[in-house]
Amino acid sequence: MYIITRRIIYPEGDSQEINNELRINQLVDLNGNPLKLPLRTSRMIVYRVQKIKKDYSKGEELVNYFLELVRRDELEYLVE
Fold this sequence. Notes:
Elements: E1 3-9, E2 15-18, E3 27-28, E4 47-57, E5 60-69, H1 72-75
Parallel strand pairs: 1-5
Antiparallel strand pairs: 1-2, 3-4, 4-5
């Protein structure tokens, strides 16, 4: 049996386990769910996947997605 564990790592160092796979530069919400563009509003907390690190051990893969906070002025360009 092979187990894959995926976690998002917030800029402050906290982490949360997620179910979905992410990509570099993908925008996600507070819970690590991918966002669809264009955004409805810029008044939300949005993170960008900055780095992906994979660790392997026997029967297990740990995938860490490191996030960075997207500033509100950057979000203004992504609103419809």
